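How a chain folds remains the central question behind the approach discussed here. In the encoding step, the backbone of a single protein was reduced to a row of integers, each denoting a local shape. We regard such an encoding as a compact summary of how the chain folds. The sequence in question and its structure tokens are set out directly beneath this paragraph:

___
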Amino acid sequence: MAADKVAWDTVELDEGEAIPALDGYDILIAMGGPMDVWEEAAHPWLVAEKRAIREWVAEDRPFLGFCLGHQLLADALGGTVGPAAASEVGIMDVGLEAAGRGDPLFAGLPETLTCMQWHSAAVTALPAGATLLAGSPVCPVQAFRVGRAAYGLQFHIEVTGLTASEWGCVPAYAVSLETVMGAGALGRLDAEMAAALPGLNRTARILYDNFMGLVRNG
């Protein structure tokens, strides 16, 4: 976005910042987090975030959600999110469905995408009218679209060389990491990430360009 001279504002809801008036914005992006969509009592800001997402998407405006943001999109629009059948943590593959292979967001990408996963919750039922775009054996809903350009992606491609170590400092992430991958998992994941990073970055660049194309041509 910096290279494209796109201006953006970051809002840290978990740090007490409030959602601003969204009338002047073109895109809404919701990132991940260690909390779950149903933990509204512990994280009251989830209520306002879901409302903002619901109102934004109701106007058919471009939205992109990663991990928790993907789950919030589903929950806000009447889908179901719950504990995953099994946690996914590490470098894994996601397969595009037929609809995903024909979707402009994934144009120019292979049918099998290598990505980074770090989640223990999953979308278990899509909102009415949503289109399933990608899945995996453990988590059947890895990506979906609502309307023209509102997308949820359970997986991560928006990573850097520091992502594993930074997220490993979050207690909830550290617990899930060692539960799935065993003691000393952070070092192994960091090595996996380093090896996969060039491919992840290429995928992220293509997906970003595709999404911005949808925004500009909308």
